[in-house]
Prior knowledge:
By secondary structure, the protein is of the alpha/beta class. The chain has helices at 8-15, 19-26, 34-47, 53-59, 75-91, 113-116, 134-142, 166-179, 195-210, 227-238, 252-264, 298-310, and strands at residues 65-70, 95-100, 102-103, 109-110, 124-126, 147-150, 161-164, 185-189, 220-222, 246-249, 274-276, 293-295, 319-322, 325-327. Strands 2-1-5-6-7-13 form a 6-stranded parallel β-sheet, sandwiched between helices. Strands 9-8-10-11 form a 4-stranded parallel β-sheet, sandwiched between helices.
Amino acid sequence: MKKDKVTIQDVARLAGVSMMTVSRVISRKSGVKDTTRRKIQDAIDSLHYQPNISARSLAGSKSYFLGLIYDNPNAAYLSQFLAGTLHHCNRNGYNLIISSFESDGHGHYQIDRTLINRARIDGIIIPPPLCDCVEILTSLKDAGIPMVRVAPQSQPDYSPFVCMDDRRAAGEITEYLINQGHRRVGFIQGHPDHGASKLRYEGMKQALEKHNIPLPDSYIQQGYFSYKSGFACAERLLGLDDPPTAIFASNDDMAAAAISVAHKAGLSVPDDISVVGFDDLPLASTIWPRLTTIRQPIMAMAEKAADFLIYPDNQETGDHILDYKLIIRESVAPPKQLT
Length: 339
């Protein structure tokens, strides 16, 4: 049976239920047993059924179109975020409109008025750093477009949002370095326009302060979430007269760059220098040594953000904090003086 000919009747027949019950499950309405709901979802997946967006739009007030706007220098992060959003939209019979809002380099953005003025768009997902741009938020609010922000730093009550606890995660991975015996820890900051960069710095600094470990200004280098910036920062850190024994980079791209700089200088990772990152992108497990890092739930945050817009009546709160995980691999060892 071809995918474009599958109907709700086919799903109902395979699941052994009525078309009304299938419709209730598709619309995420209550009154359906969990066992029946799973049986219907299995039938939908087996038949690759996609609801008819045009018919649903004509029948109700929704357009079944969501928007996603972005300006993120990290292509790997953006790829995972887009994959999570697209998967959830497709699974729930929605189309996704994607638009890039470009910065002028001074915190102002070229706003896509075509997207904002598009008739009947059901809502827009805003990942960092756009999620903290007052100009964009005001434009969407004035247009009456629902929005969900991902990892905002400011105005938490402005709209529903999804995030993880960046500060606590950064503190935990710093504690791991401290427990390995490191007392000289360098830090490569993330892009200053991203709220998560500040939170990760605060978490790292608080963990060091808890153990009375100093953090010299020279150990703090400004990166921009790019491999190139991480490379330059790591060169400065390892070029110090008293270099750190460990480097915490605010994302995996910059951590990978730090490992490259160490190898270029003839240093062994982790025997001579330990390196940790943040995100757990595919890169983290393909470089050598494999990277110790924080696994950020990027795809899960994207799916939850879409869920806020697709099923707004099902949300118990206006925010959702997802769990992270410390991933321990081979890029960390005790400093040489302790081995």
